[in-house]
Design a protein that fits this description.
The complex is a heterodimer. By secondary structure, chain A is mostly helical. Chain A has 20 helices and two strands. In chain B, helix 3 runs antiparallel to helix 4, helix 15 runs antiparallel to helix 20 and helix 17 packs antiparallel against helix 19. The radius of gyration of chain B is 28 Å and the shape is globular. Classes of the chains: A mainly alpha, B mainly alpha.
Chain lengths: ~475, ~600
Amino acid sequence: MSFHELWLLLPVLIISLGIILLLLQAAWRRQPKLAQGICVVTLIAAAVALIWQFPVGVQSITLLFEYEPVGGFFSILLLFVSLSVALLQGVYMGSYSKMPSTEAAEEFYLLLLLSCLGGMLLTMASHVASLLLGLELMGLSMLAMLAYNRERRLALEGAIKYLLLSGAATSVLLLGLAFLYATSGSLVLSELMQMPNGGAMSLLAKSGFVLVIAGLAFKLSLVPLHFWTPDVYQGAPVNSTLFLTSLSKTAVFAILIKLILIIPQDFEADLIRMLTWMAIASMLLGNWLALQQQSIKRLMAYSAIAHMGYILVAGIIAIDIDHSLVLEGASYYLLAYLIASILIFAVLTLLSRFDDQHDLDELPQLQGLFWQHPWLATIMALAFLSLAGMPITVGFIGKFYLLTLAIKLSAWWLVTAMIVGSAVGLYYYLRVIFALFAPLENSTLSAPKALVTNIWITVVAASLLVLGLLPGLLGNELRAVLGVG
Amino acid sequence: MMRDWLYIIPLLPLLSSVLLLLLAGKLKPMQVALLGVGSMGLAALLTLLIGIEFYQQGGEVFQQAVFNWLPIAGAPVNFGLHLDQLSMVMMSVIVGVGWLIHWYAAAYMYTDPQIQRFFVYMNLFVFAMLMLVLGDNLVLLFLGWEGVGLCSFLLIGFWQYDAENVLAAKKAFIVTRVGDTAMMIGLLMLFSHFNTLFIPAIVGDPQVMNDDQLWWACLLLVGGAVGKSAQIPLQTWLPDAMAGPTPVSALIHAATMVTAGVYLIARMHPLFLQVPHILEIVAWIGTLTLLLAGFAALVQTDIKRILAYSTMSQIGYMFLGLGALAFDSAIFHLMTHAFFKALLFMTAGSIIVKLHHEQNIFKMGGLFKSLPLTSSFLLIGLLALVAVPGTSGFFSKEAILAATWQAPTAGPVLWSMAVFGAFLTSVYSFRLLFIVCFGTAHHPVKEGDFSFSSQYVVPLIPLVVLAIMGGWVMLDFDQVFVLGEHPHLPLWLELTPLVAALVGLLIAWWLYFPRPTAVAKEGRLQTFLLGGLGFDWLYERLLTRPLQLIARWNKGDVIDSGYHFIAWLNLSLNELLVMSQNGKTRWYLYATVAGGALMLGGLIWWR
């Protein structure tokens, strides 16, 4: 490994350094505030480093990783959500001091950095080994975060479910990779689907790729591998749910799009058909499942299923036409989804306590939030409007991109499902908004005063509107950055 | 360069509006007034500075790209401002007259507990109006167009506790909406042919569309203009719009918003020149409206309704000017009209306040004795309205009439109708003056005169000066409009309108001056005219009732039953699908593996 390659790995190295610091700190002196500080500083430093030396072309770093703009952009998104989660965690833990001293709060930040590191490695992976390494590093750290409150029965239950099911999914993924290796004889991703002596893909190889897709689709909770989502979302501490719904989806989508962009020509038609059906089913089923949901976390789980379906549309189109424009659309949509998720879960986090048996989750509890915390309710309403794709929010622009692309491709089934899904989605998003502004009945919710966190949330909320009003602002940047992709 | 600051001018009222909105309930009335009026004052100062520089450079067009808004490939919509001689005049009127009206409004609304909300709307209105005239593309223009419509709606129904005000607001909104819809279709037609909505690109090359398509597009634009500017057949909302506070009537329903239609046609005039038939229609619309409004104004008893009908008729003159290819004269009349009509509305507002919110002119009387200053302002405004030589209205109206006589799209018939309109103007103006200011007082006047130092009077003084001298301003439009030599008509043609006005004065004198006990006569003709020549009645029969009938018929949600089925279907699907999420890990595991198998099966099946 040359010095230049090390230099390119700088953001990852900064995160690793942060992890070591956190380990040392935990051994030396337990102090949650300090741990949070180290975590936040690490994330910001990594983001600065990443933006500063943002990749312009594809550069490989040993056999395992490659450094390229699309992955770089997704890494920025990963750092963005990790930072949000880290900032929220301090407020959420607040009065965790009641717990025995051995069960203190610092390890959460350690796990967060580890998981973020896994995600970033995943976006940079160019080899099966690094893919698995990133995936498992991310997944296992996240598992611990999901079960972080061991006092909660539901959290443990959800984590066990996630462990079992994701174990099954990973084995499917491994089987698929084994099939591919058996036919191609290479573990480098770009050669994974090249048949020896350049022939067409055999059925074994195709099956292998489908199994890989299935393994990744599990993480993205795409239909028909979505079953785990609502239970795990609901059980986990709300901040960990946010992490699960944002970080792991982003990283896995990054590797998924990388994989489907390198499939050989003769497999395209098959794959497009399969992914189309998965996307349609996800958009429709996800929205239908959410219709009468009373738990916000479950509702967000179903909504995530639907939104992953939408993003998959971008992947499908990417196989067919011009890559860079599609990546731009997908990135915009993903960003919109992340911003809205962060805002919704941030409000829930601010109103919940880690040491309670349950988070604030049921819709009736949120009734009349506006009359107690107008600012929080406004932010939440904005986020839901953005998820619903209302104009002047960033969610609208994301949907607009995808819809335009799908129409350009004349993929009428996809277009129909997108429109039907949006209409159905509006129903339950508006239901939440109605509850927020309904007359206040009895509950009193208290939100802690946390200046930095509130400023951060306000900035994210402002970006939701600014990017919605002025799509050119980011669109031009994205185009310039991803133009080579 | 001063002009690089152009974008600040619309930004100022917008910022003030947002600030007032955010600080709702936290400010004292004085602070509200300072913010609301001060932002306009600053904007006016900036407009003056930019204006001086603009005219020193010979009226050279200045385009400012503020930011890229919608980067749609092929037809990007950018947030850009376009300053030329036309938008300079419009901006000066909006900001200048608007500032004075804001100032007056601060005094007028000072004791109203809702003054903060009032200034939020007023400042927002100015912002939207500036977007309308400064925007360099039709998207911005349309946004401003809808923005002023919204503010007009909010301000007409400002005192929302009175159901009548709300109904008037609704009427204004719905009637203008008809025009707006036409206009939107027109804009989309333009877009589909030009593939851009950038105004200079469209007016620079109107041959892209063939005459037939252009005819329709222009007709639809005229539809929008007619709705906004209260011309036949969409004129019925303006008299009712007087339900709003009087400064609103002065700003929106006299000086600025209602003239947006005139601006639109002037702005898009190269398209109209391709299809002169449309201009004939515009001229006829203007002429018929000015006659209709003149007749209706003859019998009104509410001082604000008289002024509203007079506004309608003056805009009719502007439309006639547009139709007679005298775009410059139409804009000139727009400007002078803004001066004297804002003055008239605000003096009327002062009188109304003085008389304990009495608006019926027959209950006024003798105001020259009790309110000498305000009454003389009223007199000056009316003289300008009647176009007495030397006042501002004289120059502009004379220019329109002269152009009408010679224009190929107008001609002597329209000219004589317009002269008859001048006669009507004179009659109703002097009727108003004689009944309100002379005779015996019928109503107690509030204590204290409006002296020169009153906030009700100071903002009017510049308008008094402008109403008299505003006609001496020589507006130059050589960079915007291509115009021929100004026509020189025989002297008798130029004198005829004056004679008509004089006859009108004599008739008004004979009918209304010496009678101390004059009251409104209740004849059939009077009722007909009072109701605006039966248009409300016609629309009620033709549109409102049939629509209400359909609504009644559909009260049982006949059409909705189809949607109920869809809702039921979705909810049932939800209930069915939720069963799959039963929380059992074993089932999830089977289902997940089955899902993977399904994908694999699909691959093999379709191979």
